[in-house]
Amino acid sequence: MPRLLPLGDAAWTVEFGNTIDAATHARVMGFDRALREAGPLPGVVEWVPTFRSCTVHFDPLATDAGALGERLIGLADRAPPALAAGRRWRIPVLFGGEAGPDLAELAAAGGLSPGAVVEKMAATVFRVYMLGFMPGFPYMGGLPAELAMPRLATPRKTVPARSLAVTGAMCAIYPVASPGGWRLLGRTPLNLFDPADADAPALFAPGDEVKLQPVDAAAFARLEGEAAQGRLDRARFLVATGAPWPS
C-alpha cells in the first residue's frame, strides 16, 4: 500500500516501497502517469518522481492540503504500474584510460578483465530511475551485481563532465564537472543537460532505457568536437520503440 507523508506544509510525498528495484519504480512511474492524465490539480506546482516515491509540491494558499493528500493517495492506489519504457537511447562511451581511471580497479575487484567489464556494461539495458544530485544527473538501474562498487574512500575534488560512473549498485553520468566519489569507468561526448533548451533541458527522463556503445578515442574526439560546435543532434542516438538494439 502506498503511504502519504507530509514534507513541510507545501508538499506531500507518496511512498511506494522501501527498496530500489524495477517493480517499485514501475509503481512510481504509474503514479507519475496518473498525475499527468488527471490534468492540472488545483494548487499543484510540480512533482518529482524518485526511486521509490514521488513528491508533489503545492501552493498551500491555493489548495486544501488535506483534500489534495486524499486525492493523491487515491490516485496512487488506483494507478497501475507503468511497465512500458520511455525513450530508448544508444549512448557512445569511451571506456578506460584517462576517461575511466577506475576501470582496472573495478575489474580486479570482481575478478574480471577490463575488457570483460566493458562487454558487460555494453550488454546491459539500463533504466533511468530518477534524476538527482544535480540537474540532469541520471541514476540508472540494471547494473550487473558483480560490477557493484562502493564510493571511493576519498572523493575526487573534480569529476570531469560527462563521466560514466558506477554508483554502488547502479550506474550514473555526471552532466557537469563536480566533486564526486563514485568509480569512473568512461566518458560520453553527449551533453546531458542544456539549460538553453527550455522544453527538455535534460537528455534523459525517468523511465528511459539506455544502452552504452563503446567507442575508441578517435570516434570520441570527433563526436566531442561536434558537440562543442552544437552539431551533435541528440535525436540520432534515439532507438525506435520496438526496434532491436543496434549491435
Strand tally is 14
Radius of gyration: 19 Å
Number of helices: 5
State the end-to-end distance: 41 Å
| Helix-strand sequence | EEHEEHEHHEEEEEEEEHE
**Helix residue percentage:** 10-25%
Low-confidence stretches: none
**CATH homologous superfamily title of the largest domain:** Cyclophilin-like
Describe this entry's structure for a reader.
With 247 residues, this protein is of the alpha+beta class. It has two domains: 3-78, Gyrase A, domain 2 (2-Layer Sandwich), CATH 3.30.1360; 88-239, Cyclophilin (Beta Barrel), CATH 2.40.100.10. It is 24% helix and 28% strand. The strands form three sheets. The protein has a seven-stranded mixed β-barrel with strand order 5-12-9-10-7-6-13. A four-stranded antiparallel beta sheet has the order 1-2-4-3, with helices on one face. Strands 8-11 form a two-stranded antiparallel ribbon. A hairpin with a 2-residue loop joins strand 9 and strand 10 (170-173). The longest helix has 16 residues, at 22-37. The protein starts with a strand and ends in an 8-residue tail after the last strand.
